């Protein structure tokens, strides 16, 4: 008897197909990296479709609540620094605490691409869960909504207080623009003319 047998001959093409499909998926995922706006628009459309589905089905409130808690957890990771000065002192880059400190860029605990990818996967999984009645647990949804809102407000308050205490802003609104050569050339020509 040989060790491989017929099971190995069937598994090899299946594994090869799975590997090729994963490589193709990863290729297209990598292609989306520079297109952040389009990625987020696609996720917003997916979230809207999920909301429409749960509205018309009038159910799956537990799935939606779990999705909301997961997204809140991802948001906290997205807004938090990689090295939290409150928890662990490090020799690496820390957040500047005084105006005279050296500038150190804000490094997120959860990068934007991973944040987007995790949220998109979560909406896809939640959308799939709405196709099975097993996940449609009867609950009084207003209590879940109020509890989630309270949890969101308390968590965001804590995060904002942390941002104020350590003086960091986790967003960079647009790329900073500097005067460059044009402003330097105009200032040097005006000083020569005088």
From TrEMBL:
<protein>
    <recommendedName>
        <fullName>Protein RER1</fullName>
    </recommendedName>
</protein>
<keyword id="KW-0812">Transmembrane</keyword>
<dbReference type="InterPro" id="IPR004932">
    <property type="entry name" value="Rer1"/>
</dbReference>
<dbReference type="Pfam" id="PF03248">
    <property type="entry name" value="Rer1"/>
</dbReference>
<dbReference type="GO" id="GO:0000139">
    <property type="term" value="C:Golgi membrane"/>
</dbReference>
<dbReference type="GO" id="GO:0006621">
    <property type="term" value="P:protein retention in ER lumen"/>
</dbReference>
<dbReference type="GO" id="GO:0006890">
    <property type="term" value="P:retrograde vesicle-mediated transport, Golgi to endoplasmic reticulum"/>
</dbReference>
<comment type="similarity">
    <text>Belongs to the RER1 family.</text>
</comment>
<keyword id="KW-0472">Membrane</keyword>
<feature type="transmembrane region" description="Helical">
    <location>
        <begin position="62"/>
        <end position="83"/>
    </location>
</feature>
<dbReference type="GO" id="GO:0005783">
    <property type="term" value="C:endoplasmic reticulum"/>
</dbReference>
<feature type="transmembrane region" description="Helical">
    <location>
        <begin position="37"/>
        <end position="56"/>
    </location>
</feature>
<keyword id="KW-1133">Transmembrane helix</keyword>
<feature type="transmembrane region" description="Helical">
    <location>
        <begin position="139"/>
        <end position="156"/>
    </location>
</feature>
<comment type="function">
    <text>Involved in the retrieval of endoplasmic reticulum membrane proteins from the early Golgi compartment.</text>
</comment>
